[in-house]
Amino acid sequence: MFYKNADKIIGNSQKLSEDLEKVCGKKVETIYPPSIIKVKNRKYNIRKKTIISTITRLTFEKNILTLIKAVQFTKSDSIKLNIIGSGNKKIELAKYINENKLDKKIKLLGQKKNINKFLNKTDLYINSSYFEGFPNSVVEAINSNIPVIASQSNGGIYDIIKYGKRDALFNPEDPYNLAEKIDYFHNNKLKFIKMSKKNKSNSKKFTLKNSIIKYENFFINAFK
Q1: Angle between the N-to-C axes of helices 175-187 and 64-73, in degrees from 0 to 180, rounded to the nearest 10
Q2: How far is CA 209 from the centre of its chain?
Q3: Of 22, 220, 32, whose CA–CA distance to 3 is shortest?
């Protein structure tokens, strides 16, 4: 009801805007959220081991148990996972890690203030959500030249990951599908780095400066 009576409508991703247009029968303009301040120049070093990070709330929609199972099913002992964040699923996830003797492979680190400290030691970033509006953490990872594997979560992920979707996107219902992609990354890091650099070429769209310009133009033109 409210969308149909709105003068202007903004969506935070192309997919969301398209879906809203179908719901309300009106044109929806896309303006990306300001996920980063500026584009970084960070060097990525290829290492034999693979440290995976995810920064998220430990809640149902973030689907962390699938990520944990995927890492459990990977073939190499050199693959480790750091989970940064807290939420109502923490006890359940800790129990699974403990019961399956994964404490040397997977760490629940809780909430952290200095996220860059962990990103600097990350080889692969994973977003495992069932659904997302616009995953800012994925933009931040790509902006730090960190390759990303993400779930097919419908929203802004398709605006962020333009290249290498076949290797970078997985079925959030299938931990084995994700495990295969992690193993593939572990053995083909150079390929993922090249993909990540291509996806980083979109990063300017997600800066604070670009968002301000888009909103200024939107409001100037909205009331002419």
Answers
A1: 50
A2: 21
A3: 22
Which pLDDT belongs to residue 14? 94
Residue range 145-173: mean pLDDT, rounded: 94
Residue 157 φ then ψ, to 5°: -60, -30
Q: What is the pLDDT of residue 56?
A: 95
How many angstroms separate the most distant Cα atoms in the chain? 64
Confirm or reject CATH 3.40.50.2000 for domain 50-204, answering yes or no: yes
Structure token pair of residue 126: 């994973």
pLDDT one-digit tens code per residue, 105-135: 999 999 998 888 888 899 999 999 999 889 9
Distance in angstroms (rounded) separating the CA atoms of residues 70 and 212: 39
- Quote the tokens at residue 140: 């931040």
What is the SS3 assignment for 81?
strand
Tokens of 14: 């192309």
Residue 26 burial by Cβ neighbours in a 10 Å radius (0-12, 13-18, 19+): middle
The domains of the chain are located at 10-34+205-222, 50-204
Please list, in sequence order, all residues whose beta carbon lies within 8 angstroms of the beta carbon of residue 133, skipping any fewer than 6 positions away.
Answer: 12, 13, 16, 155, 156
If we measure between CA atoms, which residue out of 53, 77, 73 comes closest to residue 146?
53
Angle in degrees, CA 49, 164, 121, rounded to 5:
30
